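Sample pair:
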Amino acid sequence: YIQVAGTMFQTHWTTLDRHPDTLLGSPDKFQYFDYTREVFSFPHIRQDCFESILFYYQDGILRSPKGVKEEVFLAELDFFGIRHDRITIGPYEHELQENYDHAVPEDQDSFQARLFLLLHHKSSNSTKIYTFIDIFFI
């Protein structure tokens, strides 16, 4: 587990090991290991920055988080030893919307389309209820 500013993240060792030239991919990470709680602890790292950094470890895509000043994000990258040239430039939110638009079935009244919209609109009450029930059973 990795604790960042009070939030716990979980990933596989092999995911981190894919980037041996970075802090989390090298043995240097153990200087941040809390042996009593058995977690890596980074209380000074911003959670929104770390989400982008962890996504880079998992999928190789590095995007600056929305609403974070560039110099703040670059400082976080420096801490983790991630080169700045790894940042993927592009309109992240726009690309996500395009992916959703293409994924929605053409027949908007079909069961499949309604289920898709139910599960992918995080602000809807039905999605929150579904998530609560899903987590309850897990």
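The two ends are 19 Å apart (CA to CA).
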